[in-house]
Structures are given as structure tokens and as C-alpha cells.
User: What shape does this take?
Amino acid sequence: MNKIIRRAEKKDYDSIYVLLVNSLGFNTDRQELHARLDKLNEGIYRTLVAEIDGKVAGFVGYCTLEAFEYSGGYIKILALATDAKHQKTGIGTALLGAVEHHARNDGIPVITLNSGIQRSDVHSFYEKRGYQKYSLGFKKIL
Assistant: This one.
């Protein structure tokens, strides 16, 4: 098994769409997502894919932001998904590791993420990798 973590490219967008829908349960339009991914892979945003034997097995999207409460900014993971057949194979851990590597190289001291309240199995995944619960998120759809 040949595993590579790399920046997402346009050729990966359909695979990312499938992961968002199937693994995360997002309800999004494929073409609108393609347009968003163009924006979510430049500037403060970065999208990485985990490729196994030439096929996308997972991805992580994140951005680098400034913080009010501490110096050095922080990375916010916006989405992380692994294909069902590749879960528990180290893909998610490798994607997190790539984000952590970026943070360390850029002197960014904190990584944050949100995870749905109902996803206790995913919470356990993050906690086993040193992430701690620290807040409760809210949203309002307008």
C-alpha cells in the first residue's frame, strides 16, 4: 500500500465531494463544492488529500487564523474525512499529523476543530491523539 499526503488538486474534487457526503453526511451541491474548493485551497486555506495507490482515501481542510486569546495564531481544522474502507488504517492520523507538522513549522501553537455532538466515536479518535474538549459550538442558519 503506497500512501501519500499531498495538496488537493482539481482532479481530487469529486473524491472530496464523495467523502463529504458519505463520511460526514454533508448535504452539498457537487458543482458549488468545486467552486468552494478552489477558494479553500488558497490563501489562508489548505486542503490535503491522503492518496493510497493513486486513489483519494481521505482529506483534511484547514485554515490559519489569528487569535484574541494567545499569540502565534491557530489552525482551525474545517473538515476531516476518511473513506469507510480505509478507516482504522492510520489515514486520519496521518492527515492530522500533516496539519500538526505545518503548525510546528510555522510556529503556530494551537490547532482547533469542531465535531458534531452525536459523533462520540470521532471524539474518541481526537482525544486519543491529544485533542481536548474545550467548548461547545453554535450556529444559526439565516
